[in-house]
Each structure stands twice: as C-alpha cells, then as structure tokens.
Amino acid sequence: MPSFERSTVVDAARDVFWRRGYAETGIAELEQATGLTRSSIYNAFGSKRGLFDAVLAAYLDDVVRTRLRPLGGGDPGALEAYIAEMREGIEHDTPRARLGCLLLNAGSSSLATDDAEVRTTISSYAAEMRGAIRAAVADRRPDLTPDAVDALAAVCASLVVAGLTLARADRDGALATLASVPTTLESWGRV
C-alpha cells in the first residue's frame, strides 16, 4: 500500500509535464517534484508514461471538464464567461494559464505523433470541447439553424484552440484570438 497521496503526486507531476512536456521531462525531475523515488513511481504508475497517463486523466477531470460543464446548461452567456476566464488567466499571467492547455501541448509533441493512445485521448478531448462549445452556441444563438450553429461552433472551437496554443509563446496574440470569440458569436449571420 503506497504511503503517499496519489492525487498529490499526480498534481506535482502535472506541473512538471505542463512546463517541460513529456519527452523533455526526466525521471529525476519527477522524483524531485513528487518526492517519490524512481522505484516508487514505477511501482505506483508502471512507468513515466503511466504517470503521464494519470496526469492527463486527472487534467481532463479536474481542469477541462470542470470548465466545460457550464457550457450548454441553458445560460446564453456561458461561452463568453468561459472565454473571459481563460483571458483573465492569460492576461494576469497566472502560471498555468500561460502554459496553455496541457492536452493541446501534448497533441503538438512527438508523443502524439508516435502514440495512437495519446492521439485518441487528444481527439476525444477535442470532440468533447467542440460538443460543449456547440451546446453553448446553441444556447447563445437560438436564432440560427442547426447547420449554422455547427459552423459557428466549429469557428469558436478553432479560436479557443488557437488562443490556448498561442498562450505559451504569444500572450497578446492569445488574448486577441480569444477576444474575437464573443464578437464572432454576436456577428455571425448578421448583416
């Protein structure tokens, strides 16, 4: 039976993977961040990759789904609130917000190129995000046809992905990209 709190270890490892990426993170860094020895990491998670998988699963549950949950709940302002929260984190330079999205970062790494399981996780996340944004767009713009909602949601989801991807390297670009979502929501289909 492990003598450590699994969620604490996963959170500590998440911060390292988020800053450095999977390939660039060494076991020694994970040992230092988690306070576990290499053998304890391997006994508890099977491998560095097993720890990374635990990190991605926790990130989906604790970060992503928590933020997506209000979208599509009937609040016409939910998508704007979602975007405002992201912009606030990036604008105020909160450490995690400036690192972008852990899953999108993993998706742009060589790990995703080489690993079908990681690609599936990222693809599932993207589909979940698109679905939540689609529901929020439908709540916000009941005047649109289902096809127009689909198209607008695809554009808004693409802007969110672009903004979160830019957050790491181009703060102002990320903010501008995310700021265009409410304008796009309002102006879509209007002359």
UniProtKB/TrEMBL annotation:
Pfam families: TetR_N. InterPro entries: Homeodomain-like_sf, HTH_TetR, Tet_transcr_reg_TetR-rel_C_sf. Keywords: DNA-binding, Transcription, Transcription regulation. Residues 3-63 form the HTH tetR-type domain. It comes from the Bacteria. Coiled coil: none annotated. Residues 26-45 bind DNA. Signal peptide: none annotated. This is TetR/AcrR family transcriptional regulator. It comes from Microbacterium algihabitans.
